Amino acid sequence: MKRAFCTAAILAAATLTGCSLIPDYTRPDTPTAETFKEDGPWRLAKPADQAKRGEWWTILQDPLLSQMEGQLETGSLELAAALARNDAANAYLSGQNARLFPEVDAVGNLDTNRQSAGRPLRGPNLPNVYGNTAVGAGFVYEIDLWGHIRSAITSAEALAEASKADVESVRLSLQAQLATDYIQLRGLDSQIRLLSDSIEAYRRELQLIQHRHDEGIVSGIDVARSQTLLEETQAQKMSALGQRALYEHAIAALLGQSASSFSIAPAALVPVYPNVPPTVPSQVLQRRPDIAAAERRVAAANANIGVARAAFFPEISLGALGGFQNMGGGSLLTAPNSFWSLGPLAFFNIFDAGRREALVQQATAQTHEATAVYRATVLNAFKEVEDNLALLRYLGEENQHQSAAVVAARRTYDLATNRYREGAVSYLEVIDAENAKLRTERVELDIQVARMQSTVGLVRAIGGSW
Questions:
Q1: Dist CA 123 CA 103 (whole Å)
Q2: CA atoms within a 13 Å half-sphere pointing along the CA-CB vector of 62
Q3: Measured between alpha carbons, how far is 178 from 390 in angstroms, rounded to an integer?
C-alpha cells in the first residue's frame, strides 16, 4: 500500500509540477527597411512564407517553359531528396512525441541451464540441470518532470517546420534555375541564328570579292580579310553551339532526364519584360522560405538549451513487469507461477566532470550561431531584391541605348558597303563596320537575356510572383 501511494504521488507530481527549462523565445531582431531604395515604396509586414507563390513563370509567356516547369515537380531528383529529408524530419518528430507515452513490451524465454557443482553459496539438493520458462509483459514510462521530453519535442517541431520550408526553398530555386537556363538557351538560339545569317552574308560577300579579285579590281588582301571575317564568325557560331549544348544538358539534369536522350528544338528568344509594380503585396520578403527555415532553426536551437538544462535534474521512470515463470514443464499459466514487480526508478548524476555544463554551453553557442545565420539570411534577401531591382532598372535603360547603337551600326555598315562598291574606301572600313554591326547585335541579345533573367531573379528574391 505504501509503495502504491508513493507511485501515485510521483505521477501526481509529474502532472502538477511538470515544467520547461527552455529560455523564453522571441524572433531575433534583424535590420529592416520600409522601402527598397532601388524602386519605390515596398512595405514589409508579418511573415507569410506559407503564401502561394503561383505559377510565376507564366509571366514569360513561353508554353514550353511552362510545360517543363510542370515536369520539374515530378522529375527533379533534388526536389525528391528535399521531400525525403522532410519525411525524415516528420518521422523524427513522431518519434519524439511517442516518448510522452509508456513503452509496452512482451517478454518471454525458454532455456535450459546447468549450474556448477562448485558454485558459491549453492544450496543443498539443487539439481545440476534445470529449466527456466517465462512469459509476461511490462512497460516503462519516463516521467517528464523537468520538460526534457517536451523540450526535445519543441525542437523537433521547429526542425520539421524548417524542413518543410527547405522543400519550398529548393522548389523555388529549381524553378528559377530552370527558367534562367532556358532563357540563356533561347538567347544562344538567337545568337546562333544571327551568326548563321551573318555567315551566309559573309560567304556571298567573299564570292563577290573573289570575283572582283579575279577581274583585277581588288587586291588579294581584300579576299584574305573577307575570308578571315567569315572564318571568325563560323568559329563564334561553333562556340555558341557548344554553350547551347551545355545549357540543354543542364536543363535535362534539372528535369531528372538523361542528357543523352533529351533535346530542345531551337527557337529564337522572344523578349518579354513584365512590368514590376511600384508597390507589391506586403509579404515581399516574408514569403521567402529560406528566411522561415532559418528562423525555425533558431527556435529549435533555443529548445535544445532546455534539453541540456534538464539533464541536471533527476531522471525518474516508472516500470512494471508481470507474467508467469516456472522451471519448465506444463502448468505455466497458473496462479502459483505468477510474478510481478512495480515501482519507480530514479537516476541522479553527482559528478560528470562538467559534461552537462558543456552541453548547455554548446546548445547556447549553437543558438547564437543559428541567430547569426538567420540575420545573415534576411540581409542577403534585402541584397538580392535590391540587386535585381537595380539590374532591371539599368538594364532597361542600357537596352534602349544598345538598340539605338544597333540601328546606327547597321546604317554604318550599309554606308561603308556602298562606299566600298563605289571605290571610295578600302575593304578594311567595311570589315570594321561589319564587326561593329555583329558586335552590337550580339550585345543587344545579351542585354535582353539579362533583363529576362533579372525578372526571374526578382521573383526568386521576393519568394514568388508579385
A1: 38
A2: 23
A3: 22
For residue 167, which of 46, 259, 82 has the smallest C-alpha distance? 82
Q: Is residue 326 part of a domain?
A: no
DSSP string, 188-233: HHHHHHHHHHHHHHHHHHHHHHHHHHHTTSS-HHHHHHHHHHHHHH
Residue 250 falls within a domain, yes or no? yes
C-alpha 212 chain-centroid distance: 63
Q: ∠380-382-383 over CA atoms, to 5°? A: 60
Q: 405 in a domain, yes or no?
A: yes
Answer yes or no: is 441 within a domain: yes
How many whole angstroms separate alpha carbon 225 and alpha carbon 223?
5
Q: Is the dihedral of CA 189, 191, 196, 197 positive or negative?
A: positive
3-state SS, residue 62: coil
Give 276's Cβ-side CA count (13 Å radius): 24
Which cell numbers in the block locate residue 278? 511600384
Encoded amino acid at 255, one letter:
L
C-alpha cell at 152: 526535445
pLDDT tens sequence across 313-349? 999 999 999 999 988 777 888 888 889 999 898 989 8
Q: E strands, 39-128, where? A: 103-114
Confidence of residue 79 (pLDDT cuts 50, 70, 90): very high
Which among 92, 90, 142 is positioned nearest to 315, based on CA atoms?
142
Angle between the 148-214 and 63-75 helix axes, to the nearest 10 degrees?
A: 140
3-state secondary structure of 85: helix
Eight-class DSSP state of 322: E
Residue 90 maps to which CATH number?
Answer: 1.20.1600.10
* Residue 46: band (very low, low, confident or very high) from pLDDT cuts 50, 70, 90: very low
d(CA 16, CA 271): 68
pTM over 0.90: no
Domain count for the chain: 1
> Is residue 149 within 8 Å of residue 100, measured between CB atoms?
yes
Domain of residue 416 covers 22-100+146-314+376-462
Predicted confidence (pLDDT) per residue in 261-313, tens digit: 999 999 999 999 988 766 554 455 677 899 999 999 999 999 999 999 999 99
